[in-house]
Amino acid sequence: MRQTITISIPKNIKKALDHLVSEEGVSRSDVVRDSLRDYLFVHQFRSLRSKMMTQAREKGIYTDEDVFNKVS
Q1: pLDDT at 64 over 90
Q2: In terms of Cα–Cα distance, which of 38, 39, 41, 15 is closest to 28?
Q3: Which of 61-69's residues contact partners 24+ apart within 8 Å by CB, and which partners?
Q4: Angstrom distances, CA of residue 3 to CA of 12, 30, 33, 64
Q5: Which of 2-6, 38-42, 59-63 has the highest mean pLDDT?
Q6: How far apart are CA 64 and CA 42, in angstroms?
Q7: What is d(CA 66, CA 72) in angstroms, rounded to the nearest whole number?
Q8: In the predicted model, what is the mean pLDDT of residues 28-46?
Q9: What is the mean pLDDT of residues 39-67?
């Protein structure tokens, strides 16, 4: 189910957004939705990576080479 939200943005960002939607032929909603999806994905990835790095360090894994040696 879709929901509507209202946000406020600076004029320069709105201008850039309007320019982008004009060039790409997509809606503002499409751009904002995709941007939020990407942001949330990156945020979740960084959070998981941080947790995994802590666990890896506890096991003496610090580098890509350490990972390779563990899985080889």
Answers
A1: no
A2: 15
A3: none
A4: 26, 14, 11, 42
A5: 38-42
A6: 21
A7: 10
A8: 98
A9: 93
What tokens were used for 25?
A: 């032929």
Q: pLDDT tens for residues 15-36?
A: 999 999 999 999 999 999 999 9
Task: Give the DSSP letter of residue 63.
Answer: S
pTM of the predicted protein model: 0.72
Find out whether 56 and 63 touch, Cβ atoms under 8 Å: no
The full length of the chain comes to: 72
Tokens 């990972």 belong to which residue?
67
Taking the C-alpha atoms of residue 56 and residue 8, their distance in angstroms, rounded to an integer, is: 41
- The candidate with the shortest Cα–Cα distance to 28, out of 53, 59, 6, 52, is 6
Q: Which DSSP helix (H) or strand (E) runs through 9?
A: none
